């Protein structure tokens, strides 16, 4: 048999293979990302050999690095308290990957872990592993099974060191974990622990219990990545118990209100699990998770796909159920947005964020004192021309930044306001001061070109006043 060091068709999955370095003794092994679609959907795991990572203590010194052609390498640290299972007999270890770590590996497609399949004798299989610090892929042929191990015909060029823990795949799914080489009278063959050997553990609930132990709910979490319509869903949410419905919900924090009262107060948005939809939902009020068009209570700005079990919205990190759908367009239909991410926010990181909030609050008066007294907005055409005109500086800051109001009412008794949104990501123009959600135009702070974006309308952009680029 000829050795084939080529990338199989499912190259994305093949790149989801990492080199595992153990600092304690310099040991090196291979591991790979995997998912259990039926057993533990939407959770991500690292699979390797027991002799590479024998216990939770070994995870502390393990560094897992993913490398792929034309892509920067990415390393993750293991957190076995989230989930850890190992078997010395099978020589297999499975470690849960935290959601924030999973989101740093967006281009790596995890292997589907096949708990039922066993390659037939003569069937082609692929073995991926690290050889001399480089990821290599080898084509082999199944020689059948020996107990709970798969025998694979290989060439002598397959490395003896560093390959342990690599995935053995057949028909695009991982069926076994490579454990080592064995020299027989007929030649050299590889041995790999069949993942089907985990079936008894899976059916008894032992596997899922070890890989998904009960964890305390995150006190804070963040949603980010939304741009444009309904980007108000971005922000920090804090957990609280809703006594009426008897479930935990997360309310979006308004930074200025939080620093003033030292407690979370709903700013119009709530993250909850719909009682009827069983989907995590961001809405303006607590409901059943269904749109009015679906016979529900409505008020929904964003919703994730249905996932029946679990009370922690942050643990979901892979697959379609990790994708959010956000209301957009005139009809407010839910449209997929793959950029939206929901992740836990550690207490230490929340403390740092609050420090930045306090810094903004402390310097609000300085920014107000340095602001110009009057600005003029020009260039909005047609029906949006009501936004044009002179605006005067307000005596108090809004969202810790200067704000301006038109001298005269433009629509009935409504004035035009120019202010910084609550998320501190953009300047907005609207007919009332607020958090920036209800607006008629905005400009993102990250944009190099200072120009307004007209919401829902495709008019030519107009110059933004230079005052807005000073902070």
Automatic annotation (TrEMBL):
InterPro entries: Peptidase_S1_PA
Protein name: Serine protease
Lineage of producing organism: Eukaryota, Sar, Alveolata, Dinophyceae, Suessiales
């Amino acid at each position: 048999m000829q050795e084939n060091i080529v990338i199989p068709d499912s190259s994305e999955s093949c790149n989801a293979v990492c080199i595992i370095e153990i600092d304690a003794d310099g040991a090196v092994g291979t591991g790979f990302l995997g998912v259990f679609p039926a057993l533990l959907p939407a959770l991500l795991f690292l699979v390797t050999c027991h002799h590479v990572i024998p216990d939770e203590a070994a995870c502390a010194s393990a560094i897992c690095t993913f490398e792929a052609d034309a892509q920067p390498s990415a390393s993750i640290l293991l957190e076995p308290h989230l989930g850890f299972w190992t078997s010395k007999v099978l020589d297999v270890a499975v470690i849960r990957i935290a959601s924030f770590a999973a989101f740093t590996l967006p281009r790596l497609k995890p292997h589907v872990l096949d708990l039922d399949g066993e390659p037939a004798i003569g069937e082609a299989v692929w073995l991926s592993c690290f050889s001399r610090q480089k990821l290599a892929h080898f084509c082999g042929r199944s020689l059948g099974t020996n107990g709970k191990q798969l025998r694979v015909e290989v060439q002598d060029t397959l490395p003896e060191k560093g390959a342990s823990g690599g995935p053995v795949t057949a028909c695009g799914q991982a069926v076994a974990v490579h454990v080592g080489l064995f020299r027989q009278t007929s030649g050299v063959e590889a041995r790999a622990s069949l993942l089907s050997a985990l079936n008894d553990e899976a059916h008894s609930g032992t596997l899922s219990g070890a890989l998904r132990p009960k964890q305390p709910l995150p006190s804070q979490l963040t949603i980010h990545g939304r741009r444009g319509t309904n980007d108000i869903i971005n922000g920090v949410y804090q957990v609280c118990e809703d006594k009426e419905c008897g479930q935990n919900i997360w309310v979006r924090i308004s930074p200025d209100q939080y620093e003033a009262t030292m407690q979370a107060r709903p700013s119009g948005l709530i993250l909850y699990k719909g009682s009827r939809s069983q989907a995590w939902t961001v809405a303006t009020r607590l409901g059943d998770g269904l749109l009015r068009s679906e016979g529900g209570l409505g008020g929904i700005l964003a919703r994730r796909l249905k996932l029946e079990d679990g009370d922690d919205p942050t643990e979901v990190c892979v697959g379609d159920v990790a994708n959010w759908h956000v209301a957009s367009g005139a009809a407010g239909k839910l449209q997929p947005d793959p950029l939206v991410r929901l992740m836990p926010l550690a207490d230490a990181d929340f403390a740092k964020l609050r420090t930045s909030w306090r810094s903004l609050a402390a310097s609000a008066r300085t920014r107000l004192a340095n602001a110009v007294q009057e600005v003029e907005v020009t260039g909005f055409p047609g029906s949006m021309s009501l936004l044009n005109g002179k605006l005067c500086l307000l005596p108090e800051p809004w969202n810790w930044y200067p704000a301006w109001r038109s001298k005269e009412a433009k629509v009935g008794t409504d004035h035009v306001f120019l202010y910084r949104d609550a998320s501190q990501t953009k300047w907005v123009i609207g007919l009332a001061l607020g958090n920036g959600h209800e607006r008629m135009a905005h400009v993102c702070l990250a944009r190099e070109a200072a120009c307004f974006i007209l919401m829902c309308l495709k008019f030519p952009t107009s110059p933004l006043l230079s005052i807005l680029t000073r902070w």
